[in-house]
Amino acid sequence: MEPGLTAAHFAALGNHATCLLELVAHGADVHMPTESDEISFRPIHLTRVNKHMEALSVLKDAGGDVESPFTHYILRTPKPQGGYTYNLMGAYHGEF
User: Where are the ANK repeats (predicted)?
Assistant: First the structure.
């Protein structure tokens, strides 16, 4: 994974809405982008591209901007034998 990912990035990637609610309740910045000059995305971007609607709802309610720009994202894909594959992808230009 890319350096600079926060707990909110991981919670968003896994669609862990309850974890995001706890982070918000304890004052965490759930909108912090990654800490890289070449790669920039926020937790809300991970919820959008992976269609994690529960986590997306939490981040929107916490003031997240669903239209904020980003350069890359992580796509989470289920494996047939269980578990997931994670791939760093270029900017997404499709509909959400």
Answer: 3-35
CA distances in angstroms from 76 to 4, 7, 41, listed in the order given: 18, 16, 15
As a CATH number, domain 7-90 is 1.25.40.20
* Cα(63)–Cα(72) distance, integer angstroms: 21
Both structure tokens of 70: 């980003």
Q: What is the pLDDT of residues 2-44, one digit of tens each?
A: 568 899 999 999 999 999 999 999 999 999 888 777 778 899 9
Domain boundaries, the chain: 7-90
